[in-house]
Please model this.
Amino acid sequence: MFLLLPFDSLIVNLLGISLTVLFTLLLVFIIVPAIFGVSFGIRKLYMKTLLKIFAWATLRMERGAKEKNHQLYKPYTNGIIAKDPTSLEEEIKEIRRSGSSKALDNTPEFELSDIFYFCRKGMETIMDDEVTKRFSAEELESWNLLSRTNYNFQYISLRLTVLWGLGVLIRYCFLLPLRIALAFTGISLLVVGTTVVGYLPNGRFKEFMSKHVHLMCYRICVRALTAIITYHDRENRPRNGGICVANHTSPIDVIILASDGYYAMVGQVHGGLMGVIQRAMVKACPHVWFERSEVKDRHLVAKRLTEHVQDKSKLPILIFPEGTCINNTSVMMFKKGSFEIGATVYPVAIKYDPQFGDAFWNSSKYGMVTYLLRMMTSWAIVCSVWYLPPMTREADEDAVQFANRVKSAIARQGGLVDLLW
Amino acid sequence: MILVELMNDVAPEVCLFIIPVFDNDMTSNSLRGPYADSTEECYGQLQNYSGLEYVKCCSLLCDKFTFLEFSISHSQITRLYSRFTSLDKGENGTLSREDFQRIPELAINPLGDRIINAFFPEGEDQVNFRGFMRTLAHFRPIEDNEKSKDVNGPEPLNSRSNKLHFAFRLYDLDKDEKISRDELLQVLRMMVGVNISDEQLGSIADRTIQEADQDGDSAISFTEFVKVLEKVDVEQKMSIRFLH
Model:
């Protein structure tokens, strides 16, 4: 037992030194830049290296498939089947119009074979419709060394497997603990910081401190996910007294937008950790949190939002009108509630690059914790954010038309499909 | 055999990932051996597996074995399987009628309900992946080299006659192998809408039956149905082509 002691202290010393070094590196390279909003460019370099590796991996798989004379499983954003260009609604209108307008003529035309068109159209929608596929993750053109996105598993050579194994090691043993440590730091700083700021007397200083505490913590969280974000058109950023609307892909959208601007959040009151964060945040600046029972009462919700918006000193509200997470290939119908309030709307389009990590939260498949783990074990989250010029509702438009106009603008800018549903 | 059992016990994903790396050819040979030369026997073993195991079994064996029934490629079957799972909200490996009714574009189709019914065999409420594929197989395009296939084998699901039978069953609700005037009226009403009066619809139905009916029973049997449509390009109208 005495023999172990010198070794013990050696190991303890080594551990202590390495932890200190790690912590210092963390502080210098990640946390300090986050506080001041600067960047060393490490993440961009990381992204470039990864892209080169992915391209090489896909080439190897294609070669493997060619040797066996097979076809690789490739995704098609245009759908998996060849569809008729005419839509169902048009065809139905044709048939019914030709029927009713034949007042002078004899009976309308009908053939036993007319059924074939509808039968085939029905089958086509069962095999591939526009709406259902938006609720599952988008498929990738090339493999990104994550087994969760691999459909061509039988064409993987030994070299690729080694590379994949290396990737697993890096992601789980190096990146994951780092990210968890950062996330922990970010969240605790947010809670502590906003509580402390809450004790300050109301005034310019409090607002200044609150803004910077919020921004700093969100920036740390952004680095915790290794999110590489490109902001476009920052002069159109939302101003006080407006509503910011964006397409919704995952809960991370909030962190991405809030790390570049100072918003008032809207949401349900949660229990647990989320509840603690929410209560702390509301001490520093007025966010709008609803009780579960209030959410069902649409008039109450609208009233509170209107009150918030009319107070020009209050922050812009962040709302996701789709209501649910969509897989970032399209924009679905916006709920008209936020467009009835009558404030200026600042649309924002968010487009993720799924090659480095798919940010879509399939809430029916994964819970929150599993989702966050998946996020933290991907390579990175890469996205582009476009701030669109503000829009207001015109005199002859109703809320639904206004909502559709905003939706089209967001879809066009983000390169997403603008769905009718 | 061992590998197939291994697939079921250990996580399928892990096995399928490791196996191809080590020895691709060995796998297919060893599976072929115990099942003798007949493809039907080999396939018979697979019938016990449903859903995911089925698809992954297919991908391990040579293509020509299990795709014989549906004659589509491995990537197409994988795509359809992923479509099946995205429709299957209950995640129990089968689809119910509600899963189909959730597709918005199908809800506006006048024949939507009848098409959904075509998937479910008599008296059943759930359809598994194989049943799903069987119904979809009716819509596979007819290849040129199949037209002169062996006449002794069973008729493929996507033959002209089977396609016509599929459409016939959409008309024939009570499954008595005849389209009666009432059944025809129902379909007419759904397709043409509410703007036509009942008398006009009735006269259309009567005229259609008159043109088709040959044995004078005021109903259209399957043979009469086929005869009326002999000039129609059924193969093209009732086929869905995969993009790859």
User: Anything to note?
Assistant: Chain B touches chain A through 65 residues (CB under 8 Å). Residues 198-212 of chain B form the longest helix (15 residues). Confidence is low (pLDDT under 50) at residues 1-52, 58-68 of chain B. The CA atoms of residues 99 and 136 of chain B lie 16 Å apart.
